[in-house]
C-alpha cells in the first residue's frame, strides 16, 4: 500500500459536487505538470504523421541513422547557408534586382516557428519539472541521468529547427534588407552548437534550449503580427527577454564549465560541487560559442554608446529598446545619414530640408 508521501498526486477529477462528468478532468501534479502525459500524445501524433518512420519514443541519436547526425552534412549545410546568403546578396546587388515582398510566406514561416517552439518548450517542461522536483537542479544540469531518451528526442527536433531558421536570413536577403555579422553568424553558430552538444551528451543542454525556445515563441509571434501590420505595445519586451536569456545562459554554462574543468584538472586545488556530464569538446565549443555572442553584443554597445560618430548619435535617439536600436543601426547607410540627420546632434532634419537635400543629391 502506498504511503501518503509516495502516493501519486495526479488524480483525475471525475465528479464535481456529486455531478458525474462525462470525462475526467486532468489534475496537474509534480510528475505530470499538465495532468496527463503530453509526450505520449506527441509520440502518437508524430508516429501517425510520419507513418512510423519517426517514432519519438524509440528515437536514439545514432550518427548516420537520421538526417544531420554526422559531421559532413552538418558542415555542408551550414556552408551552403552562408553561400546562399552572401552569394545571393552579391548577385542581387550586381543585377539591381528589385526586393521581393513575400509577406504571405513570411507570415507562414513565423507562424510555424512560433508554434513549433511552443510545442517543444512545453514538452521539455513536462520532462524537466518532475526531474528537478525529485532530484534537484544540479542533477538536471550535470548528471548523466538527466540525459533521458525523451529529452534527447526533443533536443534533436530542436536541432533540426535551427536549420529551418536559416530561412530567416534568406528572407532578409531577397527582401533587400541589410545584414549584421551577428545575425548571420548567430544562425550558423547555433546550429553547430546544438550538434556539438548532441554528440557531446551534455545534460545542461536544456538550459539554453528552453530559454531560446521561450524567447522564440514570443519573437516569432511578434514577427508574425508585424508582418500582418499589427502593432503591439510589448515589442520592447522581446529584446528584454533575449537579454535575460543571454545572461542566464552564460551563468549556467560558466558554472557547468567550471565544475567540469575543476573536476578533470584540479580537483584538489579548487572547490566544486561535482562533475558535469559531457565531453571536453562539447564543453569547450559550447562555452566558446556562447561567449562569442557576449563579445559581439559588447562590441555593438561599444560602437553605439562610446563612439561619437554621427551614426551612434542617431541610434542613441531611437526609442523602443535594443531591438529597435539594432534595426536602426543596420538600416542606416552613409547616404541616409547625410540626407536625413543632423551631423552634430543626430536629430532628424526637418521635412523641408530633407526634401531639399534629396533634390540636391538628384542633381549631383
Automatic annotation (TrEMBL):
Residues 339-364 are annotated as: Disordered. It is found in: Membrane. PROSITE patterns: ELO. Residues 351-364 have a biased composition (Basic and acidic residues). It comes from the Eukaryota. It is a multi-pass membrane protein. It catalyses: an acyl-CoA + malonyl-CoA + H(+) = a 3-oxoacyl-CoA + CO2 + CoA; a very-long-chain acyl-CoA + malonyl-CoA + H(+) = a very-long-chain 3-oxoacyl-CoA + CO2 + CoA. One of its GO terms (cellular component) is endoplasmic reticulum membrane. The keyword 4Fe-4S does not apply. InterPro entries: ELO_CS (IPR030457), ELO_fam (IPR002076). One of its GO terms (molecular function) is fatty acid elongase activity. Keywords: Fatty acid biosynthesis, Fatty acid metabolism, Lipid biosynthesis, Lipid metabolism, Membrane, Transferase, Transmembrane, Transmembrane helix. Its main location: membrane. GO terms for biological process: fatty acid elongation, monounsaturated fatty acid; fatty acid elongation, polyunsaturated fatty acid; fatty acid elongation, saturated fatty acid; sphingolipid biosynthetic process; very long-chain fatty acid biosynthetic process. Its EC number is 2.3.1.-. The chain crosses the membrane at residues 72-92, 112-133, 153-174, 181-200, 206-225, 237-257, 277-302. Belongs to the ELO family. This is Elongation of fatty acids protein.
Amino acid at each position: 500500500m502506498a504511503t501518503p508521501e509516495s502516493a501519486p498526486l495526479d488524480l483525475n477529477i471525475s465528479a464535481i459536487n456529486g455531478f458525474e462528468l462525462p470525462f475526467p478532468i486532468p489534475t496537474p501534479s509534480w510528475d505530470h505538470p499538465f495532468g496527463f502525459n503530453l509526450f505520449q500524445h506527441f509520440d502518437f501524433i508524430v508516429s501517425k504523421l510520419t507513418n512510423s518512420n519517426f517514432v519519438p519514443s524509440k528515437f536514439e541519436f545514432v550518427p548516420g541513422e537520421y538526417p544531420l547526425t554526422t559531421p559532413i552534412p552538418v558542415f555542408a549545410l551550414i556552408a551552403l547557408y552562408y553561400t546562399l546568403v552572401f552569394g545571393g546578396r552579391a548577385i542581387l546587388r550586381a543585377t539591381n534586382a528589385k526586393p521581393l515582398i513575400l509577406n504571405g510566406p513570411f507570415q507562414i514561416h513565423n507562424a510555424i516557428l512560433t508554434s513549433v517552439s511552443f510545442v517543444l518548450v512545453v514538452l521539455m517542461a513536462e520532462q524537466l519539472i518532475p526531474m528537478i522536483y525529485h532530484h534537484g537542479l544540479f542533477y538536471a544540469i550535470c548528471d548523466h541521468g538527466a540525459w533521458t531518451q525523451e529529452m534527447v528526442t526533443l533536443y534533436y527536433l530542436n536541432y533540426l529547427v535551427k536549420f529551418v531558421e536559416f530561412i530567416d536570413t534568406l528572407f532578409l536577403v531577397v527582401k533587400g534588407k541589410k545584414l549584421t555579422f551577428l545575425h548571420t553568424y548567430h544562425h550558423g553558430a547555433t546550429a553547430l552548437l546544438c550538434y556539438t552538444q548532441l554528440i557531446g551528451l551534455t545534460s545542461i543542454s536544456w538550459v539554453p534550449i528552453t530559454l531560446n525556445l521561450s524567447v522564440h515563441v514570443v519573437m516569432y509571434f511578434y514577427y508574425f503580427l508585424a508582418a500582418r501590420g499589427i502593432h503591439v505595445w510589448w515589442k520592447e519586451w522581446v529584446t528584454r527577454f533575449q537579454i535575460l536569456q543571454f545572461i542566464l545562459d552564460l551563468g549556467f554554462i560558466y558554472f557547468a564549465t567550471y565544475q567540469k574543468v575543476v573536476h578533470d584538472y584540479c580537483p584538489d586545488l579548487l572547490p566544486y560541487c561535482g562533475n558535469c556530464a559531457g565531453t571536453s569538446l562539447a564543453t569547450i565549443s559550447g562555452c566558446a560559442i556562447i561567449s562569442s555572442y557576449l563579445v559581439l553584443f559588447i562590441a555593438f554597445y561599444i560602437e553605439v554608446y562610446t563612439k561619437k560618430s554621427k551614426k551612434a548619435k542617431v541610434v542613441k535617439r531611437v526609442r523602443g529598446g535594443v531591438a529597435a536600436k539594432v534595426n536602426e543601426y543596420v538600416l542606416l547607410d552613409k547616404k541616409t545619414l547625410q540626407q536625413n540627420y543632423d551631423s552634430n546632434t543626430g536629430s532628424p532634419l526637418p521635412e523641408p530640408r530633407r526634401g531639399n537635400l534629396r533634390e540636391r543629391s538628384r542633381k549631383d
